[in-house]
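Dear support,

Our group has been running a series of protein-ligand predictions, and this particular one with 6-O-alpha-D-glucopyranosyl-D-fructose is the one our PI (initials K.S.) wants archived with full inputs and outputs. We had some confusion internally about which version of the output was final, so please treat the block below as the authoritative record. The input we submitted was:
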Amino acid sequence: MINGYSKRWWKEAVVYQIYPRSFQDSNGDGIGDLNGITSRLDYLKNLGVNVIWLSPHFDSPNADNGYDIRDYRKVMTEFGTMADFDRMLAGIKKRHMRLIIDLVVNHTSDEHKWFQESRKSRTNPYRDYYIWRDGKPNPNAPNAPGTPPGLDPPNNYNSFFSGSAWQWDETTRQFYLHLFAVKQPDLNWENPKVRQEVYSLMRFWLDKGVDGFRMDVIPLISKPTGLPDLTPGQNAVKLWANGPRRDEFLQEMNREVLSKYDDMSVGEAIGIDLAGTHDIVGEERHQLSQIFNFDATRIGNQGGYNYRPLHLPELKAVYTAHATVLGKQDWDTSFLSNHDMSRVVSRWGDTSTPELRALSAKLLQTMVLTLRGTAYLYQGDELGMTNYPWTKISEFNDIEVQNRFKTEVAQGKLTEQQLIAGAAAYGRDNARTPMQWDKSSNAGFSKGNHTWEPVNPNYLEINAADQLKDPDSVYHYNQRVIALRRSDPAFIYGDYQDLDPTHEQVFLYTRTLGASSYLIVLNFSSQPIDYTLPPGTQAKTLKLGNYKDSTDPAESTTLHLRPREARIYKN
Ligand code: ISL
Ligand code: CA
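Confirmed final output from the archive:
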């Protein structure tokens, strides 16, 4: 035990998320692949991360870039073969790193064998692998495409990707549930055979040597009893995330699979609030190791792609709530981005000049790497990669954008220009443009003449090769903060305290474990600030900062903070 926490390898990890499609193409088809990843393992080792989370690498028709799985035991053809996977895994182990993979089992692809069978007849042995219901008779029902006249969907659920969550299937004249795309039918976890199939595919990958899973939308697996209509104003995601058998299913999964391995599991816990977190991650609950809670990253969201600008005290309040509500049994996560978000430096940093962009990228990474919980970096954030300058709907690949175009723009709820502006600022494609490796064509991502997603033209300014040569680069700064974090358990098991919760520009907090205490100072504004430390606060030894030189003598009580300055003091 350390400071009341049990010691676990996954609490001490710095995890790096790879979106394989966009990481490194090895054969010139414009799509990243597993051999590409293998060729970059030294780069990751050198950065200092020690766990890789691989977004889905399974056989898939790619309606949602691999989050629609056709065969859980096969590698996506574009990504390579099982032999390539085994070689990649061996390379990861050889470098003393670990691998977690994406477990997407709330739904499959409609091209999965189970669904192909399920839709054949109402008596097919696989029928109950999915959620089929009769339509609701309504003589006035609109004659919507794909829906027979006179029938409404079984209830009023909407899909995350626009439109009804029910799809009419003419063969058996019933609707199936899809909380995401039409091509992502939801599995029926009430069926014990479905659960055993999932446990068996988990064992398949664990037995190969993977170290655990990131679990896609895992709280949604238990559906509300009887699937009644949502009532006006009811929060759908919250309802779906708190189904009656969720914990029972996760405990069964833990008992039958996870508890037999030294693994980690991190749930993508959409719809779970802080108060509900213990139920899933509490150690005595025997479910998951940790979850992603999106309270911080969703601050200011006003629906769709609409966000208010970040108000720093709101962010501080989220982290204080985490430190207060979660107990020593409940492990946390620290992250600011993933493949579903815009680039963090474009979102919360200042990209108006190259200097401010690099400084703010460093500042944000300082925060991620010094907050409580297992730290997660998303590919490219170590370079300070930015959003792409999108101008046309046709440039976006994401099904979320394309469906919004087909529904909301078609219905006149949004103009095309509004959708483009929103998706350009906050859309998921921003995170999915190719990694910027060097100054060669396609930023070194691919030798082909076409890439599946456009390369950001700023690769001449922002790329790994240049940053590896420059000791002051965002990359090397990340390397130093990662090393510092991994050098002292205070960053892992230490207490957290916000010393100035209301200041609107400066974030000031400590991480303390016994005699080891760090003071983190972050100037979130692009203005210089003379900041007087609260009484009793010390800033003794500067360990690390995102400016080359320090202007303030040791133990100053007023700090002359420069634009977007980040400092870590050891007290
Ligand atoms: O990305 C979102 C909004 O822009 C979220 O609503 C997202 O759909 C949600 O967090 C679930 O995400 C996960 O499951 C989806 C997949 O598209 C995402 O990439 C994945 O992270 C369906 O599998
Ligand atoms: Ca390729």
